[in-house]
Every structure is written in C-alpha cells, then in structure tokens.
Amino acid sequence: MRPPVVEDSWKRLSRTTQARIALGRAGASLPTQEVLNFSLAHARARDAVHAPFDRDKIAGEIEALGFETLFVASAAPDRASYLRRPDWGRSLNPESQALLAARKSEACDLAIVVADGLSATAVHNQTAPLLAAFKPYIARAGWRVGPIVIASQARVALGDEIGRLLQARAAILLVGERPGLSSPDSLGIYVTYDPKPGRNDGERNCISNVREEGLAHDLAAFKLAWLVDQALRRKLTGVGLKDESDLLLQSEGRPAALSER
Amino acid sequence: MGFHYATGTTRWAFGSLAELMAKATPPRSGDMLAGIAASCAEENVAAKLCLADIPLRRFLEETLVPYEADEITRLIIDTHDREAFAPIAHLTVGEFRNFLLSSEATPEAVSALTPGVTPEMAAAVSKLMRNQDLILAAKKCRVVTKFRNTLGLPGTMAVRLQPNHPTDSRAGIAASIIDGLMYGSGDAVIGINPASDSLPVIADLLQLIDGLIARFEIPTQACVLTHVTSSIELINRGMPVDLVFQSVAGTEAANRAFGVDLAVLREGREAALSLKRGTIGDNVMYFETGQGSALSANAHHGVDQQTLEARAYAVCRQFKPLLVNTVVGFIGPEYLYDGKQIIRAGLEDHFCGKLMGLPLGCDVCYTNHAEADQDDMDNLMTLLAAAGVTYIMGIPGADDVMLNYQSTSFHDALYLREVFGLRRAPEFDAWLQRMRIAGADGRLLRQEPAHPLIAWHEA
Q1: This prediction's pTM
Q2: How many whole angstroms separate alpha carbon B418 and alpha carbon B422?
Q3: ipTM surpasses 0.85
C-alpha cells in the first residue's frame, strides 16, 4: 500500500496565482514531490544571483532603439565583494567617475541607468522591451534624456551619483531584483527627483516586478511616465508622491500610448 | 570614557560603551561592514567579559546615540520607569543574565521589569547569552495583545497569513487567503504586502479582506502593509483599516529614511483608534523591524545593528502594537551572512522584544543571495517555537512570489503545532472548528470541494 498523501480539494484555485497553494500534505507536512520541487527552484535562483552580466548585448539592444549608451562600473570589483559590500555597489569606481565627469554634458531631464543588481538575467530579459515601451512617452513629453548608462555590480543608490554627474533633474534606474523562486528575472524601476549622493529610499518611488508574467512592459512604462511627469511637475519623489496612475487607468481605460502600440 | 579588560597578558581597550557593545556582539557581517566588529575572536570574548561587569545603571548615564541628536534616545530616557527598574538597579549586565535564568525570575517578576528595561540593557544582556539562554529567558515573558482575538497566551502560537501576489490580483490574493485559512493559518493577521503603493489598489485589497472577514465572521484582523501616511489617507477616505502598519528602526535618522517620525506614528495610531474596529481590544499597530536597517540608511551612529534593533522596539512599545515582526533574514547577506547568523539574530530579537514587553513574532526567512536554505529555517522556527514566539509567517509553500524571498509556510506552522502541541488564538481556534476546518484537537480535517470558503472564491 502506498502511504497516503492528502490532496487539497481547492486545487483549481491555483490557476489564479503562481503562489504554491493547494500543495497537499503528508500528515501535516509537505509531500515529497513538493519538497523536491522547492529545492529545484531554490537551486535555480541561487544560480541566477551569480550569472554573469552581458553588458555588450544589452548595449546593442538599447542602441538599436536609438539611444546612446555608456558603460560604468561600481567600486565593487567582483560578485563576492558586491554581495558583502553594498557601500561599494553604491559608488562609481574612479574610472567611471572620470568618464562621466569628463563628458561636461548639458543638463538633461532624465538620466536613465541600467543596473545589473542581483539578477543580470532580469536585465537581459526586460531592459529592451521596457525601454521600447517607454520611448514614445519620452518623445511625447519632450523630455531631454542623457546617454543610457549601463552599470555593472551596481546597487540602486548608484543612480544618485550618475544622475548628479549627468546633471539630470531626475534619475530612472532599472535594476535586476533579487531573484525569487518563481521569478528569477524580475526588474525593478526606481525614480529619484534631483538625484545626488546621500538620497535615501524614502525619497524614491519604485515600480517592482516588471516582467511579462508580472507587471507587463507597457503598463510599467505607463506608470513610469506618470511618475516622471508628476516628479518633474511637483519637484519631488518618495513618500510625498503617491502612485495614483491606476486611477487614470481605471477612469480613462487604456491610455493612448498603450493602445497605439 | 574608556573601558579595559585583560585576558592573560593582553590588555584590551574599548573607547566607549558603544564600541564595547559592538565588539561584544556575536560575529555578523553587518557590524563588519560598519567597521565596528571585534578584530578577532579573543577581542570578542574580552568585550563580553568586560561588558558583564558593567552596571545596568551605566546605560542610563551614558547614551549610545546622543540625547540631543536623536528623538529615540530622548524617548528611551524620558519614558524610563525608575520604579520598575528598582529591583535590578544594583545589578551588572552579567548578574542580570544570572537573574533572568534563575527561578526568582518568574513570568510575573520579569513582566513587572519591562518598563524599566531599556533597549540597551536588553541588548547588552543578550550579548552574554547563549542561544539556549535566549530561549529560556524569552519563554518567561508573557505578552498578550488583542484586537479581534487574543494573541500571546501560553501554549499558543499564531500565524500571519501573507497572501502576496506579484500584481495584486484580487483573485490570486483571495486564493492564497483561502489556502491559508484551509490550512488553519491567519489568526495573527491576514496581512498583504502590496506590490503597488497606489492608494486605489490598496483600498481595493482592504475591502476584499474586510468583506471576507465580515462574511464568515472570522475572528482575525486585516492589514495591507503600506506606509503609515498612506494608511492615514485611506482612513480619511473611509476605508476599512484594522491595523496601521509601519517599518521602524532604532534611530531618528533611520526612521527619517523610512519617511516617519514619532509624531506621524502617533497620528497613525490615533487615526486607527478613531475607527474603533477592534472588538475585544485596541492594539491597532503592526510594526516590522530588522537588524541592519539603520546601517543601510547610513544612520547607525557607530552602534552595532543588534542594539539598534532593540532600540526600534522602544519605538514600537510606545504605540502598544498588536504585533511586532522582526524580518530577520530579509535584508541580505551583507547584514546577516548565513544561516548561523540569521538564527542567532532571530533569537536575540525575539528575546529583546519580549523582555521589553512586545508581542514579538518573527519572519523566519532568507533571500537567494544569502548562504542559507530551508534547513536553516527549520532550525530557527523550531527554536523560536521553543522560546514561545508570538507568531510566525504563513506563506503558501514558504515562497513569497511578490517579495522574492523564502519564509515559513502553513505546513511549517502545522509541523510546530505537532511537535510542541501549540494551539491557535482561542477565538480563531473555535472558528476553525465551527467551519469544520480543524477538529477539537486542532488538527486539520479532510475537505470536500463544496466548503463555503472555496465556494466564496469561485463566486
């Protein structure tokens, strides 16, 4: 006789979520198959943290959209030190600092930074589709955008230093989010008005979980454009700026830029 | 003023109380990152030996974060209860450990001390304790809180049902709530971390849980974990807010990084109280904390992360919370490197919080860039259950598909109930029996597809 596993009678609810619901039980514990499924997902997420960042491929895709690109790196020399020293990941290495300072570029409205963060896989998969969806909003609003800065071993606050050096009114930072078991490739977007070193997280707005199975690229681009527009108008980001873009989505249906595409 | 201790022929010097505390802390990556950890194992123990001889009173005379510069220090000093402190006022830190472990330290005696124990005292004694001491002493602390049920009674452990969804889908969140309830979880709170900080989305989720709780008369409370200012705004818009949530830290500057101060927390609590939604109690606040948040915000004043965590509890206790949650492994390996450090920190936080009179639960968790796995979580949750933890998280399959980390599952809570014989909050326990989800022994019953909760989801 096979030992009993209690099946859950609400298994069909699992079509509404990727969460691990209705797993069943052996006594009060997880069935063997579910324990092993979990281990496999954890193994994949662990591997994603350490996957190398292919910045040349990303640069090619971004340039194909008509943007200029630049490479920079944080002060963290490798992945191991990046994980232990977040302070290094928040500042540019001297060469990158010099590179941006030497540009003596004109002030711009937006500095856009693409940061590997904790999942290069996320940046590989989401950056080009997101920027493609965001580009029409840039054109419509007439925002002046600096070169797109591709940053290795980078954390969120690195965007502050880059934004300051590019004399941007606001910084947008796309970053590979910490990989989860069911989402090794989700992208986060941070918007910071008047970026400069020393900004804290309460002074930013965040859009998270950008990926096809999460917040789709066109919706993410719509929210991002809403936040940037509000940030530049009201001259702030962070806890003082609540994301009410969904109200607009509800009252006006799909926004023009979404239906055009 | 400095401190000295000689181990054999080596004389160790510690420049300040803050330095002594940092060097006496069991090793962790966050203190190394801050550059304040002991330089070697022997210095670590020398600092503990030195700390053991410091009178508790000293912590009232020498503040670790300046009084003038920090409203949390002012809160700690200005609200210190000298009368409650009197029974231990003559003790050193080392003697305080001996007292807490002695038979004189009954649950009644320890509870009476609570308003006299500052976070620095709690942190100091915890640094001299082994894991078993942290468990035994915490087990003596009784903290009971109420909103629609009674949390923290001896022999019980509650679960926060955390039904997060990556896009805040109502159907997806509802499915995870049903899954959790059918597994007997959710007495601490049904608490959603929204992916969005959009007020209309949060309002919609509040109405979803409120509707479910009302429809089935579930003796529990709801929370959508959003910034306190958003909760205040939602209350002003007439939304059904049971508990007001906020992440807090142990220094004024770190709280500023979270966009809060004591005044806005007070405002949040008053707004929640004004709704009078609690049926049997008015503990309306839900706080989350975690070692490393102050350093992460560059606001640590050279104080070690465990002491700063205890200072965050001074913030919490001012507002009589229903629940406090140390999210122990969420912040990442730069603060708690591996399973060993996460386990130690979870036990320290639970002990310090309980000693300070708080209903401490623990998000027993880790991220995928930390050196930890589910076996480490098994160890920590088992130790915390032995220590009498108020509640743990219940997440479908322990995998949070929105926040991208691993915590504890509904199954994990059932495992702890099996091993320790722990029951749920009594009102919720009775509800589960009425709903024929669990039997009189607390164990799950077999279910048919026609259960009303499942039918509710499909309606």
Answers
A1: 0.88
A2: 7
A3: yes
